[in-house]
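Supplementary Note 3. Input sequence used for the single-chain structure prediction.
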Amino acid sequence: MTRSAIVVESLGKEYAVGVAERQNVTFYDVVSDWVRAPLERIRKFAGRVEEADRFWALRDVSFDVAEGEAIGVIGRNGAGKSTLLKILSRITAPTVGRATIRGRLASLLEVGTGFHPELTGRENIYLNGAIMGMTRREVIEKFDEIVSFAGVEQFIDTPVKRYSSGMYVRLAFAVAAHLEADVLVVDEVLAVGDAAFQRKSLNKMSDVAKRGRTVLLVSHNLGAIRNLCTRTLVFESGTLRFAGGVTEGVALYERSFASAGAGFEHTQFRGPLAEQVGFDSLVFRQGGEIVDIVDPLLPATIELHGHATRTFPTVDLKIAFFRDGVQVASCHDTPAEARMSEGEFTSRFDFPPDVFRPGRYMIGMGAVAAVGTWVWGQDVVAFDVSENRGGRSADRSEGLIGLPYRSERVQ
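The predicted structure, written as discrete structure tokens, is reproduced below.
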């Protein structure tokens, strides 16, 4: 009989919002706080907060994962996925319920988790192995394979604080995947690596799962979820909405997105410009009319409506199209960076016929005003393209998108 590698029972995690202690740096600050806010001080010391200050990141979550299973954990931003993984990794404790893990666990929740920036890559490999309960002999046996997989041979004796983000994540993943842990927990950190490394990492996780180890993967790459996982857990607003087959779970997740024409939630966007450049809605037009389902044989126009709270000298606004978590195309609303005035704006994108193939697409959108100043929303809106091919055979419409091109045969 197959044993359970992970058992989660009635798990809940509550956070108190807005009651963190302020760091007082002078004696005057301490006395002022004492005199001006005695009730607040007592409330904080007693650990009491108002109901409005409480937020449940997870509530009443129960499931189990069998040994050797590869489970995909999916859901919108803020659904509770990362909180779950932090509890499983013993980074934070649950408020109620419990999570039991059989065997050694390796987790990769963010770039460089468990790495000490002052230590070299070599030293961090041994440190992470010790943290996971590996013996020095076990780490030595895997050392060369880890370094080769990460591709950091030249810099293995360099402090990791000098690594690029790509080098950092490659080494962190290599350590987590190669050391002999029974359960591998991976959050959406592989997005940091390049496409080749992402494929390499997914192949490694597939190999790990085939060897009987348990994999828990959080990812927006639905193609990876379909190819790697045997089951899915779909989270929504801190609750486990679905646990079951991959096809059903992915379909439920995709239906949770706004359709074209619906308004956007502010929480879907992140970045330094999130409070200054906002995106409000997106609509498709064909033949001058707003459509819910796009006909691939007709020209289409996308209208993106938003607002800016101030004037920017230059802004580069972009929308990107995704199929199964893979970006297949992107567009910019001006040929070069252009001025954006305070107030509302509408950006229009015109497409010829035969660009969009039948199926469901996700759209991400964002803007860059300067280096390090940006806003981005991933998978903000979904739209469907009908199966209409105008009587043409399917083999004349292959691929994720149709390239607008001209061709000529000369004999």
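The domain at 258-396 is CATH 2.70.50.60 (Coagulation Factor XIII; Chain A, domain 1). The mean pLDDT is 82.
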